[in-house]
Automatic annotation (TrEMBL), chain A:
<keyword id="KW-0547">Nucleotide-binding</keyword>
<dbReference type="InterPro" id="IPR013563">
    <property type="entry name" value="Oligopep_ABC_C"/>
</dbReference>
<feature type="domain" description="ABC transporter">
    <location>
        <begin position="278"/>
        <end position="521"/>
    </location>
</feature>
<dbReference type="GO" id="GO:0005524">
    <property type="term" value="F:ATP binding"/>
</dbReference>
<feature type="domain" description="ABC transporter">
    <location>
        <begin position="6"/>
        <end position="252"/>
    </location>
</feature>
<protein>
    <submittedName>
        <fullName>Dipeptide ABC transporter ATP-binding protein</fullName>
    </submittedName>
</protein>
<keyword id="KW-0813">Transport</keyword>
<dbReference type="Pfam" id="PF08352">
    <property type="entry name" value="oligo_HPY"/>
</dbReference>
<dbReference type="InterPro" id="IPR003439">
    <property type="entry name" value="ABC_transporter-like_ATP-bd"/>
</dbReference>
TrEMBL record, chain B:
<dbReference type="InterPro" id="IPR035906">
    <property type="entry name" value="MetI-like_sf"/>
</dbReference>
<keyword id="KW-1133">Transmembrane helix</keyword>
<feature type="transmembrane region" description="Helical">
    <location>
        <begin position="192"/>
        <end position="209"/>
    </location>
</feature>
<feature type="transmembrane region" description="Helical">
    <location>
        <begin position="116"/>
        <end position="137"/>
    </location>
</feature>
<keyword id="KW-0812">Transmembrane</keyword>
<feature type="transmembrane region" description="Helical">
    <location>
        <begin position="12"/>
        <end position="30"/>
    </location>
</feature>
<keyword id="KW-0472">Membrane</keyword>
<comment type="similarity">
    <text>Belongs to the binding-protein-dependent transport system permease family.</text>
</comment>
<feature type="domain" description="ABC transmembrane type-1">
    <location>
        <begin position="110"/>
        <end position="319"/>
    </location>
</feature>
Length: 545, 329
């Protein structure tokens, strides 16, 4: 009988008084792939770090045994641990920009790691770096090895990190959210790369991810974690297809599906005959001057009616945020018209724009950064009321309480500060603040992308409810195609500053006409591993075509 | 690169000109009869009037300033009472006190201050960055706490206390060193170095404390960054991480601060120069301010300003060299 590649028994990790991982046990056979899935704070990253003994010297308390490729990680001395790290088990980190040293070339960084474990010349190590960079699909690897990380795109940096992991031919790769910072098409490429590498080299893979779809695409077995404990473990098709534990079922139910129609939302919808609430014609925005001039939004025309949701979906750099900010005039358009209620507000000077300001509101991505940490949440929500000229303190308080309750928060927490709330609750506070202005149009820019799926689902249904109830127009900007489908009546797909396809949501998702839309949809991870394999094949064909 | 240098040069000229305008304005409103001081306490009103005329102090202040500018660009003539002396461009004027040309005065003082500053600078960077690296490496241990305490004491101690202590210990008590005297490098390099040893050490001890603290804190910051975690996870030793990754990342603020310090030290090492009897720019400047010798003050301040601007431009270039993401423009 062979010993497993990874053997974890009763692993417990405490950060001060917080128990991050609680008596976790699992094994991983050589060459197998295990996905560790869970929401933020479930202890999945802490467990992954423990495999390489990365908690040593950090103040975290680790008990239990961890054996990786024959090394007892807990008992090993520092030198022994260094021989494990990178050589037998290599880690691929999440944020590829900050995970590489900005001062050295990518090739030198990989060569440095190679030389730690192999006594070879500098020149030989550089050659090895070029070899692995070429292996992970960096074009013209010999030249690009001399680039520094900032000269690489996000996807290329992630490839470089994988190349670093491959350099010493480890038996295990631990990948901690390797695709979370990437666009969906790039994510698909990276997952395909990991898949191919595993088949070729026979190395084991431990993939930590919050995205169930990513796991479904890439692993044989999946381990679901919650509050530091293993909830369920089994073959990926079984766990995702027929979950036995209630938490797994809840988690799966919260995952937005790109291939399912939007669930019906009750309530009235304002007739669209009244004409559009806001209409953009040939909207354009340029940044910079001279040779550095960039066109972020390049002639976009769209309409939003009262009571409907327009989803805007696109990858990073597609101009969706700039467009959203122009719609509420946080950014001035360079050219084009923006008609709101019979007025062209696109070129209105600030003074004349003021009456429209409160009707055009925006919800931001980061609920932490958009609330003042030094003020109580009640005061933050009251801001728009005071700005509108309300001075009666009692009336302000009553209205704020009403709004807090409306978004599902306890009105008694008026005096609390933002840090006392969870991410989802903070986003609710942000929504309450926007509602206080009694807007006609709300632009939400990635409002749920910082949230866990279960929280995400709650915030989305709150937005849908409010919109139906109040008859406001909603523009929902996101990179996540599934989320956009689940909230939108109509969808616009953006690429390089232009809208490549626009239409009723089910039409765009059901029978996409533009090749880019098709490419995007093919890149979304499927929850069913059998379908995931089929889609992987389909992607290969699309890429080859 | 050429564009960067040209723009920096333009900026430098603007900064230096503004400095001179401010100085002329300040001296114009400052109390004290320049002619009386220049002439001496026993001068009769008639003699004072003659000095006033000779120094052209009765011209309006802007005319005096324009003459000053003219001297820089084209040179100018000065009456010495008995004859006329020509001061060729770039002419910074003539001292009210000694009738010596300011440019010549600066050129005799510059090597003196230069010797002091450059030697001390090299020493304090070595000492400061070294101490900083050591305390970041030994973070959380007794060594770090000891070094933190020492550097705090260093920052809080005035240079004349350290300097006096060093003189008492090494020159008087132990008699290992001769009393510090300044000997020009060109005369005797060995005596030059021995004479400057104590001034270098006392200046470096004070300054290095600041650098040690800066290096330590910015190294600790870098050590907490994600890319350091990456190299740890790949088995790179602590020494490799400190030496190759953390130090490199921590150098930027050190470069920025050292540029400022290096420049200001040219006019600001007054205490050290006075204490060790070094006849440099700082001492001359203090004396000139006391006797309201405007041309000398302006000249000395211009020199200091010039070095600050120069050192900053060099720092920006070093910065771009250290971090390729920085583009000089």
């Amino acid at each position: 009988m062979t010993t497993p590649l990874v053997q974890v028994e009763d692993l417990t990790i405490d950060f001060g008084t917080v128990r991050a991982v609680d008596r976790l046990s699992f094994t991983l056979e050589a060459g197998a792939a295990l996905g560790v899935v869970g929401e933020s704070g479930s202890g999945k990253s802490a467990s992954a770090s423990a495999l390489l003994g990365l908690h040593r010297g950090t103040g975290a308390r680790v008990t239990g045994t961890v054996r990786v490729a024959g090394t007892d990680v807990g008992a090993a001395d520092d030198a022994e641990l260094r021989r494990l790290r990178g050589a037998k088990a290599a880690m691929v980190f999440q944020d590829p920009l900050s995970s590489l040293d900005p001062y050295y070339t990518v090739g030198d960084q990989i060569a440095e790691v190679y030389r730690v474990h192999n006594s070879v010349s500098r020149r030989a190590a550089r050659a090895r770096a070029v070899e692995v960079l070429d292996r992970v699909g960096i074009p013209d690897a010999a030249r690009r090895a001399r680039s520094r990380p900032h000269e690489f795109s996000g996807g290329m940096r992630q490839r470089a990190l994988i190349a670093m992991a491959l350099a010493c031919e480890p038996r295990l790769i631990v990948a901690d959210e390797p695709t979370t910072a990437l666009d969906v098409t790039v994510q698909a490429q990276i997952l395909d790369l990991l898949h191919d590498l595993r088949r070729e080299t026979g190395m084991g893979l431990l993939l930590v991810t919050h995205d169930v779809g990513v796991a479904a695409e890439s692993v044989d077995d999946v381990l679901v974690m919650q509050h530091g404990r293993a909830v369920e473990r089994g073959p990926v098709a079984e766990v995702l297809g027929a979950p036995r534990q209630p938490y797994t079922r809840e988690l799966l139910a919260s995952v937005p599906r790109v291939d399912e129609k939007r669930a019906g939302v009750p309530g009235p919808r304002t007739a669209t005959e009244a004409g559009p609430l806001i209409e953009a014609v040939g909207l354009r925005r340029e940044f910079g001057r001279g040779a550095g001039r960039v066109t972020a939004v390049d002639g976009v025309s769209l309409t939003v009616h009262a009571g409907e949701t327009l989803g805007i979906v696109g990858e990073s750099g597609s101009g969706k945020t700039t467009l959203g900010r122009m719609l509420v005039r946080l950014i001035d358009p360079t050219a084009g018209r923006l008609r709101y209620g019979g007025t062209d507000i696109g070129s209105l000077p600030e003074r004349e724009l003021r009456p429209f300001r409160r009707e055009l509101q925006m919800v931001f991505q980061d609920p932490v950064a958009s609330l003042n940490p030094r003020r109580s949440i009640g005061e933050s929500v009251a801001d728009p009321l005071r700005a509108a000229g309300e001075t009666d303190e009692a009336r302000i308080r009553d209205r704020v309480r009403e709004l807090l309750e409306r978004v599902g928060l306890d009105a008694g927490r008026y005096e609390r500060h933002p840090h006392e709330f969870s991410g989802g609750q903070r986003q609710r506070i942000g929504i309450a603040r926007v509602l206080a202005a009694e807007p006609k149009l709300i632009v939400c820019d990635e409002p749920v992308s910082a949230l866990d799926v279960t929280t995400q689902a709650q915030v989305i249904s709150l937005l849908a409810e409010l919109q139906r109830e109040l008859g406001i127009g909603l523009v929902f900007i996101a990179h996540d195609l599934a989320v956009v489908r689940q909230v939108s009546d109509r969808v616009a797909v953006m690429r390089q500053g232009r809208i490549v396809e626009q239409g009723v949501a089910d039409d765009v998702y059901g029978s996409p006409r533009d090749p880019y839309t098709r490419q995007l949809l093919a890149a979304v991870p499927a929850l069913d591993p059998v379908r995931a394999a089929a889609r992987r094949a389909a992607r290969r064909e699309l890429a080859a075509a | 690169m050429t564009g960067f240098l040209l723009r920096r040069l333009g900026g430098a000229v603007f900064v230096l000109l503004s400095l001179t305008v401010v100085l002329y304005a300040v001296f114009y409103v400052a109390p004290g009869d320049v002619a009386q001081i220049a002439c001496g306490p026993r001068c009769s009103p008639a003699q004072v009037a003659q000095v006033t005329a000779q120094l052209r102090l009765d011209d309006p202040v802007y005319t005096q300033y324009l003459h000053f500018l003219q001297g820089i660009v084209a040179g100018r003539d000065f009456s010495t009472g008995t004859g006329v002396e020509h001061c060729s461009a770039p002419c910074l004027g003539v001292s009210y006190q000694s009738d010596q040309q300011v440019m010549r005065l600066i050129l005799t003082k510059l090597p003196v201050t230069g010797s002091l500053v450059i030697g001390a600078f090299a020493l304090w960077i070595l000492l400061g960055v070294g101490t900083g690296v050591l305390s970041a490496w030994r973070r959380g241990r007794i060594t770090e706490r000891l070094l933190t305490w020492l550097t705090l004491a260093g920052t809080a101690t005035p240079v004349f206390v350290i300097g006096l202590l060093l003189i008492i210990i090494f020159c008087s008590t132990l008699q290992w060193l001769p009393s510090p005297t300044y000997v020009p490098f060109t005369e005797n390099p060995e005596q030059w170095a021995w004479g400057l040893l104590l001034p270098w050490v006392s200046l470096a001890l004070i300054e290095s404390a600041k650098y040690a603290r800066l290096t330590r804190s910015s190294m600790l910051e870098t050590l907490a960054e994600d890319h350091v975690r990456t190299f740890r996870a790949y088995g790179v030793s602590e020494r490799g991480i400190i030496g190759r990754h953390a130090l490199r990342g921590a150098l930027a603020p050190v470069i920025a601060l050292s540029a400022l310090d290096f420049g200001t030290m040219f006019g600001g090492a007054v205490l050290t120069e006075s204490l060790f009897g070094i006849p440099g720019i700082g001492r001359e400047l203090v004396h000139a301010v006391k006797v309201v010798d405007l041309p000398v003050v302006v000249g000395m301040v211009l020199v200091t300003g010039f070095f600050v601007v120069l050192a900053n431009a060099v720092a920006d270039m070093l910065y771009a060299l250290a971090d390729r993401r920085v583009v000089l423009s």
